[in-house]
Amino acid sequence: MVKIGNIELGDFPLLLAPMEDVSDPPFRHVCKEQGADMLYTEFVSSEGLIRDAAKSLKKLDIFEHERPIGVQLFGGSIGSMREAAIIAERVNPNLIDINYGCPVKQVACKGAGAALLQDIPKMVKMTEEIVKAVKLPVTVKTRLGWDDSTKNIIEVAERLQDIGIQALTIHGRTRKQMYKGPADWTLIREVKNNARIHIPIFGNGDVTSPIVATEMKARYGVDGVMIGRASIGYPWIFREIKHYLKTGELLSTPTLEERISVCRTHLDKSIQWKGERLGILEMRRHYASYFKGMDNFKDFRMKLVTTDSYAELLEILDAIGMHYAQVA
Question: What is the CATH number of domain 256-327?
């Protein structure tokens, strides 16, 4: 049984990665329904939280059916991160996660996210202050290092564990790599096999199928995997991995009917959470992924991303089902 503090996550938990503009409550809902064991909010700006910015506060919306769930924070100021953790704790998540992995310029250039990989003493001090400030378990997500010459994840893991983090997720790329090239899990294995390490170690990067997830478990010995981009428009990846781990058999891919049904649930939850206008707008980024690989889908996609009417969207989804049923 893998545990973070007193949170029981099963024998090989599947974690849904915190993704900006993706991991909101509607998306988390459909991933939870399909078997995700641990959810995270989108990453939340510490500066936004302490200034009561509406966008940052909205990201703290969590719901009972999502548990266990963590709030992920990012920022470059130790004081602001400490204060933001205290604010985040008030919404009663199951844990606080710190983002030391985000590679995008808007974050890293402000000394946050993966930028902290260039200043390990500051990373350690920031983490220590947050651990002291909250009663919840504190976890960290990071990368192998800033670039190929500074892959210091083994030292980072030891030092963060020593000051009290209760789990570590490692993305198998450096900041310089961004999301390019294959993820390298060999150093993740070294962290997991380090005799000094006793907290759960989760691997992240290129977990794209049940076979890959099972291979990562067997080859690298991680306690679980975190799944990001592969889940966008395909929440079924969680149930498929679980089934394969249990039986060694691949589940058949979701039917068109299932795709439409889950897409509609996602849309409904988006409207419930954001209101009709915003809910419809924010759902547009997901349609292409839900129907990826379908022949001659462009016209339907254009209709889905241009209509502002919920009733029309339902009609389009019905039309997709009828059209492709006839083609088949």
Answer: 1.10.1200.80
